[in-house]
Amino acid sequence: MLRRIVSATDAHGNAFFAEDSTITARTAEALPGFAMHYIWGADERLLPRDGSQPSWTSHFPPENGWRFVLLTLQPGQAAAPIDNPTDSQLKELEETFPGLLGTVEPGTTGMHTSETIDLCVVLTGPVTLELSDSLAKELHTGDVVVQVGNVHRWVNRSTEPVVVAGVVVGTSYAGDI
After folding, report:
1. What does the pLDDT look like over 161-172, one tens digit per residue?
2. pTM to 2 decimals?
3. Per-position b or e across 80-115, b if 16+ CB within 10 A of its CB
4. What are 17's strand-pairing partners?
């Protein structure tokens, strides 16, 4: 459980606490050791002055959308779906993390790409960030990462759970690769 505090502005211009609640991490059987807190997000840039959470529809935001998330990985786990998930596991995965599976690169173990800029900070580490061409960096508590729409996956090779906070901003690619 994670405590979420939301502050906003009332009709008279006064600041107030619009929310003080707990949120639960989402998990799916087909993604063992992976949990995601969706803290806040929207499918477009807007300012809900009353503090109400904007609507959003998919794991990754569309262009001009955004997400604020916490990723938790258990020891010895990669952020990757299991091999040969059942139809019910695939259905649960799509309902829990809509659109995530569609970003996984074929023939890989969890490598995925999204048209987003991911601004991440490692809250508890170490955690390994792997890129498509066998490049990897071990990150530690307090390290920050800016990912610019590249293929990657997160791996926990430690003996403790790791937590990464991220603000994921939907965008589109500029120019050709």
Report:
1. 999 999 999 998
2. 0.92
3. bbeeebeeebeebbbebbeebbebbeeeeebbbebe
4. 7
